[in-house]
Each structure stands twice: as structure tokens, then as C-alpha cells.
Amino acid sequence: MKRLAVIAVGMIVSMGDSSAFQRLDAKSASCEHVRLIIASDGAAVLRSSSTRVASLTLYRAYVRSDAECISSQDTRKVSVETADETPCELLICRWRDSH
User: Is residue 87 reached through a cis peptide bond, with omega within 30 degrees of 0 on the bond before it?
Assistant: First the structure.
């Protein structure tokens, strides 16, 4: 339970002041628009629908570089479905492997 709390706090810290991030609907924004916002602001939060639970909305932060992650994280490329392009390759923060 304590480990879960530490992970949750780390995720909140890694997003910093998420109210300062642009929030976009992934299906309504073009890949280029999302990339421009991330390049300008350092990060953006994309909203999308869950593929598993119809009524569930998902939010995920995408970043410009490792500098937007906390010290125990690095970045990883992921593909995101946007309005105009599949896949739109963006970066997310992820925990470094401890091995």
C-alpha cells in the first residue's frame, strides 16, 4: 500500500502543474497541432476514450523531452491516434528500469 502511494505521488509530481498544460481531445486534434503545443509548452494532456470501457475517458501527459520528467524517469515513444494520422509518435515519461 505504501509503495502504491509513493507511485501515485511520483506520477502527480511528474506532471507538475497539470493545469498549465493544454488539454486536447486526441481524436479532434491533428498530430502536427499536438506536436506544436508540446514543442511550445513542454507537455500536453490528451483525452481519449477507453477501448475497453465505453464510458471511460482517459488522460495522458505527453512531453517534449526527459527534462519534463522527474529524475527517476526517462521518455519512451508511443503511438497515439489523432484526427489525421495513425500513428502519431509522441513521448511519455516512464519509470526507469531498476535492473
Answer: yes
What is the Cα–Cα distance from 77 to 13, expressed in whole angstroms? 21
Transcribe 1-59 into DSSP letters: -HHHHHHHHHHHHHH-SGGGSEEEETTTS-HHHHHHHHHHHSEEEEEEE-SSSTT-EEE
* Beta bridge mates, 61: 45
Question: Mind listing the pLDDT tens digit of every residue in the chain (99 residues)?
Answer: 445 444 444 454 455 554 567 788 888 999 999 999 999 999 999 999 888 998 999 999 999 999 999 999 999 999 999 999 678 999 999 998 865
Are 94 and 71 a contacting pair, CB within 8 Å? no
pTM value surpassing 0.85: no
